[in-house]
Amino acid sequence: MSIPAQSNFRKLLLLAVGLTCIAALAIGLTIWWLRFDAIADASKESSNLAIVLADQTENSIQAIDIILTEIRDQEETRSARTPKDIDRILSGEDTHQFLMERLSHLRQAEFISLADRNGKLVNTTMQWPSPAIDLSDRTHFQHFKSNDDRGISISYALGPVFS
Question: Residue 123: in which H helix or E strand, if any?
Fold first, then answer.
């Protein structure tokens, strides 16, 4: 091989290496740009999903609140007729049936329970008649005992509720 042929071969080799480097750089930049777009899309989708979940949670809580407010109002009306018999009214089978009917409208709730002012379970949709359970140590009961709050408590239980 003569020197001019070797020089041309080296030029072609350098040109091929240069084009390969440029192609690798272009591929790397394309991958980085696509990754950036994928992250931006995922962030936007996560934000949209969070908004949808927040709306669904709000609707679920609102449905629970409406039913529990209805239960409270119904029980207040019933106990206003005979205030001395409030425990008997709350623990009665008709109240149990009333709670069962309201629970049937709440697919997001597992059960509804009523406790008296001392924290004793007086009625629940879990079973009839209600078991003798003391709920006075529960956080939500302590809140209502310590505060003049006419609100409603929605709690989340982990593990068995009744033992």
Answer: strand 121-124
